């Protein structure tokens, strides 16, 4: 019999938001709205779609293994050297590469409770020690994290804005945190939602930092609407990026993803529409949740974290929403058992979601014997 290592036996696999076709099969519903995976409600960048169509006839060829054109496009766009950039099939795969490249047995990998599930899954997959500092008012507790650095700490993972809370830390907070991190500890700053946050004047843009122990992650899955293609990239010091190239699978991101990403970077108009729709959708949601008395966390991203009185309440709300064709994300597996995450949608999707939640919320309050003034 093949012996399965203990850490793999115990591993909880990444659980994504429920796919639309799965719910359609299960419930036979005619209308389904998914606001569970922080995807772009506008669809993919039209320029990316055009580029994919043009590249279809090249699919019999292996793609350029160093993603030369894409890496150079990113370097030009962000004023970096190509040798400071590595691209991959989504930033989730970069997390895996970073952990497997830089960590060794007995190292501690430090982060917050209540952050991106992909980080936890990747840490546990290799059997490393995960140290998780509680959130403070749904924010990363940067002081708490710095206080937990030990001689064994190898990597610190931060997401700004954080998923699933949507909260961000400021430039001052980040600067003072960095000043407490020894040079032997790698800081990974995941900026998956940066496009939504960069209008805040105190948002720290990771690309403006040049540090020997800092890697920044970006993705095209969210604001560029390319989640299904799988494409992300990392910036960091040449000597660290060079090591990641040793680990990276040679032909990722795939050819279509590379071509689409190059085109998407020119689609400023699409990004503008994306940010504007996000603002409008979230504003409408916030107004309604305030009316209903549903607690929510102030967000700098493209989603809102809703807080309910108990895990059971959040579980029930999620199930009731699914029954009515609305897919949300119960974020228990992220470490927030009484939280549900909802991302922005088209205005029609937003209206549908608010209608569904309004319909079931009061009945659930009654079921859980919670008075409205609580
Ligand atoms: C903070 C954060 N990082 C990374 C990812 C993964 O992005 P990708 O689709 O590029 O793997 C997500 C997706 O939800 C995320 O929220």
Keyword list:
single chain; 374 residues; alpha/beta; Aspartate Aminotransferase, domain 1; Aspartate Aminotransferase, domain 2; seven-stranded mixed sheet; four-stranded antiparallel sheet; 14 helices; 13 strands; 40% helix; binds pyridoxal-5'-phosphate
Outline the structure in words.
With 374 residues, this protein is α/β, with parallel strands linked by helices. The protein folds into two domains: 6-43 and 268-367, Aspartate Aminotransferase, domain 1; 46-264, Aspartate Aminotransferase, domain 2, CATH 3.40.640.10. Helices cover 40% and strands 14% of the residues. It is built from 14 helices and 13 strands. The strands form three sheets. A seven-stranded mixed sheet has the order 2-8-7-6-5-3-4, sandwiched between helices. It has a four-stranded antiparallel sheet with strand order 9-10-13-12. A two-stranded parallel ribbon has the order 1-11. Strand 5 (153-159), helix 8 (171-178) and strand 6 (186-190) form a beta-alpha-beta unit. Helix 3 (46-55) packs antiparallel against helix 11 (255-264), helix 4 (68-78) packs parallel to helix 11 (255-264) and helix 5 packs parallel to helix 6. The mean pLDDT is 95. The protein binds pyridoxal-5'-phosphate. Residues 38, 90-92, 116, 118, 159, 163, 190, 192, 219, 221, 227, 232 line the site of pyridoxal-5'-phosphate. Pyridoxal-5'-phosphate binds next to helix 5.
